[in-house]
Amino acid sequence: MAAKTAGAGLEERWRAILSAHARTMCEIDRALHPHGLGASDFEVLDMLVTAAPEEGEQCRVQNLVGRVHLSQSALSRLIARLEKDGLVTRTVCVEDRRGVWVSLTSRGRDLHAEVLPLQRAALARTLGA
After folding, report:
1. How far is CA 58 from CA 5, 12, 47, 51, 95, in A?
2. Which terminus of the chain, N or C, has less C-beta within 10 A?
3. CB contact at 8 A, 28 and 121
4. Taking 70 as the threshold, does the pLDDT of residue 105 lie above it?
5. Model pLDDT, residue 84
6. Is the per-residue pLDDT at 99 higher than 90?
7. How far apart are CA 92 and CA 100, in angstroms?
8. Where residue 67 falls among pLDDT bands split at 50, 70, 90?
């Protein structure tokens, strides 16, 4: 009986986490939609700003894979879309031709700076901070 109760408690906590995640992602999507971004788009831009804070710095796509909640193929499609929109550029890694570098364009940096307060406000609304 105790195992069943402990399992029910874990399940309840897990569902609460999933619910908070879904509410937060939807709120971020709503806030960023007028700017042509979704929550996952913003997350990648935000990670690139953190990983490569100076203009022209690059980040390996492989380094992003473990940090975003997307499959490698979904991340590749997202980065391709961001590149098409002029927010990032991709280049092949000279040392390892299988590797791909990604960097923010000035347009990507400007858009990130513009929507950062909107994303943070959405986090505050949904997470109560």
Report:
1. 49, 41, 11, 8, 14
2. N
3. no
4. yes
5. 97
6. no
7. 5
8. confident
Name the strands in the sheet holding 100-104, side by side, starting at the edge strand that comes first in the sequence: 59-60, 100-104, 88-92
CA-CA distance, 20 to 68, in Å (whole number)? 17
Q: Which residues of 77-94 are buried (b: 16+ CB within 10 A; e: fewer)?
A: ebbeebeeeebbbeeeee
Residue type, 27: E
Q: Who has greater pLDDT, 58 or 75?
A: 75
Give the amino acid at 78: L
pTM of the predicted model as reported, rounded to 2 decimal places? 0.84
Neighbours of 39 (CB within 10 A): 19
Nearest to 50 by CA among 34, 31, 68, 36: 68
3-state DSSP assignment of residue 20 = helix
